[in-house]
C-alpha cells in the first residue's frame, strides 16, 4: 500500500513541473542572386542555417555544395574540396554559417550553386547564382602613322586587381619588347590603370603586319590582348591666306591638302572665338584628301591687330597644327593740303623706286601626277591698285595667260580649285608701311598637276602697270613620276665629254624606298643593251649609297670613242623582279681631248707661255 502511494506521488510531481520540450524546425537562407565576382578574384557564396539552438556542434552538421549538380565541397566531420581552393570555415559552422569561398574564379565557376544542410534528422537546401565577369579593359592609341617617320604607339589597361604586370608588344606573333608599365594609377572605382608605349619607324611593309599589345598579370592566368594593324597616313599641307583687296568681299581661306585618312577637323578663330565657316572636302587622284574652309568678311578698323587662326587636327599630327594671321588696318585720317602735296611728291618721285623688288617664284613641294601645285610670287612697293599680276604658262609654242578672277565674285567660285585642266589665281595684299606707302602684292597660282602639260613647262609671273612690265620671274616645272610614295630622278649627262676623262652618272630614288631593292645599269648602243655588273671593275665602277628615304647609285667610267652615241639606263626593281622605275640618259658625245699648248719648260717653271715663234716675251 505504501509503495502504491509513493508511485502516485511521483507521477503527480512530474505532471506539476513546467514544460521543457522545444519544438524547432531547420532553416537555411541565402542572399538574393546573382552574386557577381571579378575574373581572377575571390567569390564568396553566403549560406546560413539555424535550428533555434546556438551554438551548433559541427560534428552533427553535414553540408554539401554543388554547382549545376556537380559537387564542389562537402563537410562531414572534415572539409572535402573537389574544386581546388574551395574553403568552408568549421568555426563558422558552430555559429550556423556554411559560407563557401572560391579563390581565383574563372568562367567555368559561373553557374547555379546549391547549399544543402543536414542537421540532426532534418535536411534543407537553398540555391543562388554566381556570375564571373571580366571587367578589365585594354586599348591602343596612335595606330595611324606616317611612313619613314618616328611614331609612338600607346597601350593601356584598366580595372586591374594588381599593378604587378608586364606588357608585351608583338609583331606577327614575334615579341618586340617586354617591360613594366610606364604609368601606374590606382582608382577606387576602376582599380589599377597601367600604360605603356612603343616607338617605331614604320615602312610600307608594316601596313600588312599584325601588331599586338598583351598585358600579363603574374597572379592572374588570363592575359589581356589587343591585336591591331597600322594605318599609313599622309601629313597635311596647310595654307592660310586672305583673298581680295582686304576690304569688301574678302575671304579668309584655310586650304588643307594631301592628307590621309580623312579624319580631319579645321577650326577658324578670331581672338579665341570660333568663326562660322563653310568647308568643302574632295578626294585627290592619288587617294589623298583635300579640304578648303572659307570665311567671308569685310575688313574694318575693328580688325586692326586682330589675330586669326586656323587650327588643324589630324591623326598624323598628335598635338595639332595652327597657322596665324594678324592684320594691321590703318584708320582713315583727313589730310591737309601740305600732306596731300607731300604724298603726291612721294608717289611721283620716291614710290616708283619701291616697285622694283620681285621675289622668286616659291613652290610648295615636289610635283607628282594628280597632286595640287601652288606657285607664289610677290612684288613690294607702292600701293598696287593699278598693278595687275598675270601668269603665263608656256610649253613649246603654246602659251596660256591666267589672270585673277576678281575679288568681287562670291566665295563659291573657289570650288574649281582642284578641277582638272583648270587654274585658279588670286592676289594677297599686305601693308608694310604707314599710310599704305609701301605694299606687298602676292599672286598665287593653284592647279592640278598633269605630267603631259606641266613637265618642263615654263611658268612666268608678270607684274604690270597698264601695258608696262614692272617685273617678272620664271620657273620651269618638273613633274616626278608617282610610284605611290617615292620618285626617281633623271640621269643627267654633260653636252660633251672628253675622251679618257672620268665621268660619273647618278640616279636617285627618294621617298618611301622599299627595303629590298635591286639596281641595274645597262649600256644601250642602238638596239643592243648590255648589262653592267659590279664585277666589271676594269671598265665600270658602280657604287651605291642608301639612307633614310633616299637610295642613290653612281656609275663611274672613262669614256672612249666607242661610247660616243651610247646611252645608259638605270632600273630599280624588287626582289620578285618587278621593275619599279627606269631612267635613261641622253646619248653621249665623246670628243678628243684638247691639246695642251703650254710650253713644257714653262710648265715646269710655273710660267704660262706658248710655243709660238712670234712670242718672245713672258
TrEMBL record:
The signal peptide here is: 1-24
Pfam families xrefs: C1-set, V-set
Any one GO biological process: cell-cell adhesion
A GO CC term?
cell-cell junction
Q: Which UniProt keywords apply?
A: Disulfide bond, Glycoprotein, Signal
Cite a single GO MF annotation.
cell adhesion molecule binding
Q: Which PROSITE patterns match?
A: IG_LIKE, IG_MHC
Enumerate the spans annotated as Ig-like domain: 18-131, 141-229, 236-322, 352-425, 499-586
Which PANTHER family does this entry report, sorted A to Z? SIGNAL-REGULATORY PROTEIN BETA (PTHR19971)
Give the protein's recorded name.
Answer: Uncharacterized LOC116407722
- The scientific name of the source species is Xenopus tropicalis
Q: Which gene encodes it?
A: LOC116407722
Amino acid at each position: 500500500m505504501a509503495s502504491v502511494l509513493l508511485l502516485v506521488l511521483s507521477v503527480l510531481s512530474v505532471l506539476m513541473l513546467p514544460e521543457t520540450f522545444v519544438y524547432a524546425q531547420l532553416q537555411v537562407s541565402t542572399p538574393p542572386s546573382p552574386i557577381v565576382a571579378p575574373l581572377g578574384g575571390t567569390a564568396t557564396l553566403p549560406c546560413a542555417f539555424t535550428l533555434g539552438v546556438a551554438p551548433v556542434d559541427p560534428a552533427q552538421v553535414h553540408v554539401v555544395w554543388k554547382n549545376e549538380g556537380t559537387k564542389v565541397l562537402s563537410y562531414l566531420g572534415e572539409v572535402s574540396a573537389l574544386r581546388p581552393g574551395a574553403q568552408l570555415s568549421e568555426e563558422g559552422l558552430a555559429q550556423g554559417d556554411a559560407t563557401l569561398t572560391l579563390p581565383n574564379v574563372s568562367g567555368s565557376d559561373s553557374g547555379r550553386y546549391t547549399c544543402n544542410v543536414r542537421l540532426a534528422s532534418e535536411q534543407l537546401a537553398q540555391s543562388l547564382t554566381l556570375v564571373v565577369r571580366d571587367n578589365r579593359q585594354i586599348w591602343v592609341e596612335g595606330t595611324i602613322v606616317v611612313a619613314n617617320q618616328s611614331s609612338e604607339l600607346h597601350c593601356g589597361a584598366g580595372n586591374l586587381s594588381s599593378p604587378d604586370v608586364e606588357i608585351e608588344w608583338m609583331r606577327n606573333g614575334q615579341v618586340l619588347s617586354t617591360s613594366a608599365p610606364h604609368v601606374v594609377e590606382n582608382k577606387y572605382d576602376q582599380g589599377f590603370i597601367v600604360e605603356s608605349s612603343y616607338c617605331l619607324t614604320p615602312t610600307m611593309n608594316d601596313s600588312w603586319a599584325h601588331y599586338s599589345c598583351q598585358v600579363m598579370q603574374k597572379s592572374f592566368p588570363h592575359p589581356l590582348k589587343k591585336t591591331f594593324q597600322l594605318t599609313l597616313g599622309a601629313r597635311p599641307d596647310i595654307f592660310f591666306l586672305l583673298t581680295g583687296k582686304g576690304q569688301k568681299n574678302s575671304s579668309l581661306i584655310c586650304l588643307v591638302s594631301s592628307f590621309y585618312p580623312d579624319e580631319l577637323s579645321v577650326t577658324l578663330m578670331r581672338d579665341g572665338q570660333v568663326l562660322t565657316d563653310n568647308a568643302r572636302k574632295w578626294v585627290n587622284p592619288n587617294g589623298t584628301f583635300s579640304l578648303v574652309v572659307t570665311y567671308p568678311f569685310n575688313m574694318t578698323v575693328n580688325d586692326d591687330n586682330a589675330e586669326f587662326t586656323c587650327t588643324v587636327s589630324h591623326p598624323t599630327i598628335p598635338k595639332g597644327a595652327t597657322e596665324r594671321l594678324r592684320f594691321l588696318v590703318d584708320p582713315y585720317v583727313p589730310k591737309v593740303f601740305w600732306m596731300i602735296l607731300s604724298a603726291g611728291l612721294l608717289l611721283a618721285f620716291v614710290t616708283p623706286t619701291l616697285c622694283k623688288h620681285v621675289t622668286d617664284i616659291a613652290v610648295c613641294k615636289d610635283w607628282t601626277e594628280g597632286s595640287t601645285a601652288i606657285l607664289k610670287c610677290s612684288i613690294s612697293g607702292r600701293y598696287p591698285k593699278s598693278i595687275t599680276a598675270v601668269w603665263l604658262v608656256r610649253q613649246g609654242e603654246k602659251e596660256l595667260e591666267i589672270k585673277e578672277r576678281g575679288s568681287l565674285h562670291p566665295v563659291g567660285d573657289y570650288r574649281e580649285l582642284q578641277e582638272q585642266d583648270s587654274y585658279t589665281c588670286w592676289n594677297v595684299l599686305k601693308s608694310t608701311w604707314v599710310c599704305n606707302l609701301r605694299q606687298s602684292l602676292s599672286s598665287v597660282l593653284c592647279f592640278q598637276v598633269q605630267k603631259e602639260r606641266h613637265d618642263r613647262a615654263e611658268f612666268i609671273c608678270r607684274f604690270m602697270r597698264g601695258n608696262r612690265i614692272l617685273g617678272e620671274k620664271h620657273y620651269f616645272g618638273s613633274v616626278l613620276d608617282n610610284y605611290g610614295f617615292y620618285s626617281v630622278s633623271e640621269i643627267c649627262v654633260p653636252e660633251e665629254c672628253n675622251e679618257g676623262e672620268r665621268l660619273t652618272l647618278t640616279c636617285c630614288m627618294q621617298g618611301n624606298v622599299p627595303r629590298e631593292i635591286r639596281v641595274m645599269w645597262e649600256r644601250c648602243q642602238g638596239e643592243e643593251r648590255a648589262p653592267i655588273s659590279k664585277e666589271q671593275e676594269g671598265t665600270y665602277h658602280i657604287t651605291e649609297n642608301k639612307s633614310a628615304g633616299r637610295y642613290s647609285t653612281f656609275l663611274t667610267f672613262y669614256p672612249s670613242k666607242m661610247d660616243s652615241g651610247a646611252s645608259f639606263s638605270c632600273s630599280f626593281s624588287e626582289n620578285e623582279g618587278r621593275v619599279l622605275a627606269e631612267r635613261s640618259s641622253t646619248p653621249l658625245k665623246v670628243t678628243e681631248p684638247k691639246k695642251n699648248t703650254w710650253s713644257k719648260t714653262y710648265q715646269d717653271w710655273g710660267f704660262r707661255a706658248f710655243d709660238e715663234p712670234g712670242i718672245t716675251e713672258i
